[in-house]
Amino acid sequence: MGSNTFSRRALFAKLLKKLPVNTQVKDPLFEKYSRKIFKGRRYSSLTNAKNPASAKLGSETERVINVSSGLKTYAGPWTTVEALHLLKRTGFGFKKTDVDTLLGLSVTKAVDLILTVDATPPTPPVNHYNNEEPDENGLPYGADWTNDAFVTNDIGGDTNANRTTGLSAWSLGLAFNQDITIREKMVLFWYHFIPIDFEFIKQSSNQFSNTNSARICYKYMKMFRDNATGNYKSLIRKMATQPAMMFYLNNQANTKSAPDENFAREIMELFTLGKEDGSLYGEPDVIQAAKVLTGWRVQNLNTINEATNFVANLHDTSTKRFSAFFNNTAIAPTGADELDVFIDMIFSKSKVVSEYICRRLYRFFVYYDIDAAIETNVIVPLAQHFVANNWEILPVLDKLFKSEHFYDMANRGVYIKSPLDVIVGTMRTFNMNYNVADTTNYEAQYDLWNKLNMAMYGMQQAMGSIPSVAGWQAFYQKPSFHEYWINSNSIQRRYALIEYFFYGFDVEKNGLTTRLEIDVIAFVKQFPDTICEDPNLLINECIKYLVPIDFSVTAKNAIKTQTLLTGQDADYYWTGAWRSFVQNPTDMNQQIVKTRLRSLLLTITEFAEYQLM
Fold first, then answer.
1. Are 465 and 197 in contact (CB under 8 A)?
2. Cis bond leading into 528, ω under 30°?
3. Adjacent-strand bridge partners of 286
4. Neighbour tally for 446: CB within 10 Å
5. Quick one: which of 76, 168, 199, 560 is 20 to 30 A from 25 by CA?
6. φ, ψ (nearest 5 deg) of residue 416
7. Superkingdom, according to UniProt (predicted)?
């Protein structure tokens, strides 16, 4: 990660300098919810009340107005603005048709729709690479490879590398082609929370991983997709013996003669209990947990029936004794059953586990700053609801997304988009091509997805590539959290790619050319013609859909004059141009409105506010 991170105010100031329209007016959200003193951005939730020096900072770290809303059911307005807020947080961008669908429902029914995940599995990844490097098992072009194993390590390394790249591309393709539900966003949540790195597993020294890693990485991601809104405790149990995780955190090498503490540590520190104040397990607990986890081995990786099995003679048969934090639990030597007893023991610390996962959900879907009021009004009751529903994630999401807190103005337009949110969201919102014209040209399709994935890799987030077992810093690392997405390198890449989208470029592969260009006319024609022909109404509508914070009248007038009016001072310069195009769509009339609309939409997307949701 780059070291030059920016606060929201610094980000605004830096980016606004480059823009032709000066809109440096007071941001009402920032003025209402900012800290009183803004020097390096400190947070009340991160100060230590036991430290007198920290306690003196109280007046500096408290919000101007505390966010006091809680989990009471939201009963406010249900307009385009609220629908967009829900869609952007639960998916990657939005389609206007999705907005229209939600507006035809109540807020309760809208959330119900978002959370009704289709259990039908998507079409699996296929052989897209045969034209360049024939499959070493002879698998035909376009065939599903997820149940095709390499028996020996003599062949298959090149094919496995192609499949691994294809798996990353395919995963991104599912984000592009998501439906209106939360499934793909939840897959990303689980993947960042309990991650594996595709390349790390492929390069590991485990037998047959160099030729079969793509298959087990696919099955790991499938686990998240199949259980996107399911039971958290069940997911942790499944994850614990997933072959990909066995390799990633080295439990494959954990044996009674040489215990490996890697997975034992992370299942507690990162995946269930966390390491905040209430989580009081210690290093002796990690040592005992490692003993519990000895003996599990991935077997038959070179077949389609690979599995993680318990091998008794590799298991530590002593009684594992845990600390007072775990009520001095002693796990008797019962072999394979010890794993379930261990997980039950972790989840017996229900308050710690539930509050930890609810904080992680909150920081992913709402905002990163959890102060004392939010802890009391949101996290604690949400965690209690989680436990009461036997670790089911769906009721937690349901209560959060229907709450007054989720729609509180404090939580709108304050969250910096991840690279996936800004790029996938931009392409979906503007109805760009992310699927090639010929659906049977798998080589061209996967190449397109892979190029976009690599572009996002340069912005520090890509499918299949994770920086560490803790996931992406922006979702967990104090004190900056989402500000880690923005540095002097990544921000330039974001803006450069968006600008390329507006002017357009071709991607050529396997005899097929795919044009990546935002159709600005098609985008605005989604609005009624009465809006399109009025420059004031059109700018209002575009700002409402594209940025989460409204602009001042002065800023809107400046944008209008610079873009739709091309420097003129009367509205009819745009109205006349639009009407002429509608009545007589010649190339010349089309080019006039296209140039002005591109200027308008590019100007809006170049504002810092476009990086927020």
1. yes
2. no
3. none
4. 28
5. 76
6. -70, 125
7. Bacteria
